[in-house]
Each structure stands twice: as structure tokens, then as C-alpha cells.
Amino acid sequence: MPSDKKVALVTGATRGIGLETARQLGQKGIAVIVGGRTAQAAQEAADKLVAENIEAYPVGLDITKDTDRKAAASFVAEKFGKLDILVNNAGVGGEGGLLNAHTIETTEEELQSVFNANLFSVVAITREFLPLLKKSPAGRIVNLGSIVGSLTLQSMPGSPISPFKAFAYNASKTALNQFTVHLAAELKSTNIKVNSAHPGWVKTELGTQHAQMEIVDGAKTSVELALIGEDGPNGKFIHLGKELPW
């Protein structure tokens, strides 16, 4: 593989937005590492992409497991020696979906589980891969946020997202946005850019079939942010090229 070819890792890439993100990056000539909760699921997803003439490599990567994170980083280091793009796509929803409003009744177990997947593990995997991203001439980190994490829009009277009050999930995405802002500031003197992507309301297991967008469109924001140039945004919250309020 040419040394100047870009390499991307997409977590949670075995289905939905993650798989489509890997597909669209691969279609642009990027070598894609397909992260899946199990090695078998990652292999099956990578096989689909290879069948489409995409250069794809599977890696078993349960982002909540430190051993998986370290093994994945070792694989990338040995195979490629660098990482150009990290798409932190993997995440979980809370109990009852986005429309099941429960705040004070949210259990400790739900909060711990959702924050572990959507924040703590994202921080941990980013930390693990940061040395490889620093070896890229233009490292890009994309954190999959959600508009329901916007404090501005959640508190706005008559907001279109006001019905979506799943506290654990929403709060985890608000916290993830803080991680984006802080990490972008910390890395501002490097070649790495960090942004949060809102994919839209997409027809996935979490979004349900009532959603307005198809999966192919839901991946577009992540792909765009993964490929931004030197003059692109940094430390921003973006949906299809437009900045969203925190």
C-alpha cells in the first residue's frame, strides 16, 4: 500500500451509519479498518466492503474493553504505522428509546452504561490512537454526536427536539460535545482537527423507521468532517456542512 494512502478507523462499523461511513470513505480510496464488537461481526462487514472493491480490514473492537482498544491500536501500528482518520461512531441508546422521557427516574445502571459507551470509552479509544494520529500529516477525529445533546435547542421554547428527552443518552452526547471542544483546543497547535457530527434523524435501530433520513445520507456528515482540509472547521458541531449550536 502506498505510504501516502489515508487510513481510517470507524468504530461500530458493522451496520447502520458506521458501515455506511466506512463504505463512503472506502469509495474515496481510503483504507478502512472496520471496528466491530466481535471479530466475526467485523469480518462479515469487511467482507461486504471488499466485495465492493473497497480496501477494508476487520478488527474486533468492543470500545468498552481496554484489551480490545490496545489490540486494535497495535494492529494499526504494525499494519500501517499511522492513522489518518478516527471516526468514533460506536455508541448506545438509553432504555426506552429517544421518546421515552424519564429524568429523575433514570437508574444508576442506565447512566453508567450509556456514559461508559458514549463518553468514557470514546475518550479512552481516542487516547489509545492519538499517537498514531499524530503521525498523520492531517489527522482527523470525528465524534458522533446528536442534536439532542444541544443545550441551546433543548432549552429553547418550541424547539423541534423538545419531545426527545431521554436523559442518559442526551446528557452523554452533551458531554461528548465538551470532549470535542476541549480536545480540539488541546490539539490546536497540531495537524489534528476534532469535530462533532450530528448525522441527522436516520432510519437506524435507534432512530426507528419514523426517521426522516436514509442511512446513506446519515453518513455524509462524518465523511465530510473526516476529509476536511487545513482550512476546515475545528472544535465545531456540524450537520451537513452547517454549524449547530452547542
TrEMBL record:
Gene3D superfamilies annotated for this entry?
A: NAD(P)-binding Rossmann-like Domain
* Keyword NADP among UniProt keywords: yes
Q: What keywords sit in the KW lines?
A: NADP, Oxidoreductase
A Pfam family found in this protein is adh_short
> Looking at the record's lineage, which domain of life comes first?
Bacteria
* UniProt xrefs under InterPro entries: CBR1-like (IPR045313), NAD(P)-bd_dom_sf (IPR036291), SDR_fam (IPR002347)
User: What is the E.C. number?
Assistant: 1.1.1.100
- A GO molecular-function annotation: 3-oxoacyl-[acyl-carrier-protein] reductase (NADPH) activity
Regarding protein family, the annotation reads: Belongs to the short-chain dehydrogenases/reductases (SDR) family.
- Protein name (record): 3-oxoacyl-(Acyl-carrier-protein) reductase
